[in-house]
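note to self: dont lose this again. the chain is below, predicted strucutre after it. 332 aa total, dont forget to put it in the shared folder this time
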Amino acid sequence: MEVCGTHTVAISRFGIRRALPRNITLLSGPGCPVCVTPNEEIDWAIVLSQQKDVVLATFGDMMKVPGSFSSLSKEKANGAEIKVCYSTLDALEIAEKNPNKKVVFFGVGFETTAPSVAHSIISARKKNLKNYFVYSAHKTVPEALRALANSDELKLEGFILPGHVSSIIGSRPYEFIPVETGLACVISGFEPIDILSSLLCLIRQVNTKNFHVENNYRRVVKREGNKVALNIMNEVFEVSDSNWRGIGVIPGSGLKINEKYADYDAQKIFKIDVEPAKEAKGCRCGDVLRGILFPYQCPLFGRTCTPENPVGPCMVSSEGSCAAYYRYEVAQ
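---
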């Protein structure tokens, strides 16, 4: 299983899946942060965007993701003040230029984006900005891998570990996997030769039963990770339980804003009522994210659910499994 949306796209784009022998199967896991964000969190952002004097800032991938009753793009079309940001610096700038508005950044992502969001909160305090807030929907990868490795639904033999996340956290946080579960693990880069050589590493581990975390992306990933980024992240966030679409609540797999920076925590500042979340009828994104269903096996895939008219998030995000299959595999 590859546990990174960028790996999924690269595998599909370069035809790696089709080139493999039949006894090797690659499953796409929950490696797209947009995709694993549950409707309850998307609904919260949608309702918040409807509040008076609120500017909701977010990354572009979140705009078209359907919530239970609407999407951010629909709310923007209906007049909500929603800004697409390329970085958290954009959101800070919006807050500085609009002191009479409450600017809320909808923080979605894994350990890759969490440090930049944490840095924006630290910067807001230094600038004495009283109108900047963050909704933290961040999730962390290692505990999700534990849940997948222990799943009765899957018969995995190894993980292609995420390169981007690993550039931040390093290889050390994965070392429990081969010890506890007996699964092969390789951290991979994103070029075709990276992925193919990582598959070779996995096969060798399986054949020799020498299971360990192998770093096949040494030009970027260190065992101890990026200490500067980790320190920034740990300054602002603390570990929490988190709900993953299709998987459920995974203990210790989320990041919430700690008490030191509670004044910037949108969930504590804004008291809003959100209706119970609902899933789109027939959408199998949750099963795709768990790796128990290939995207093309969903009855909506390529019919009522396309990138132009997505029903579920896996077809929305540029890193979503369904979008990658639709663009590079099934269409060919």
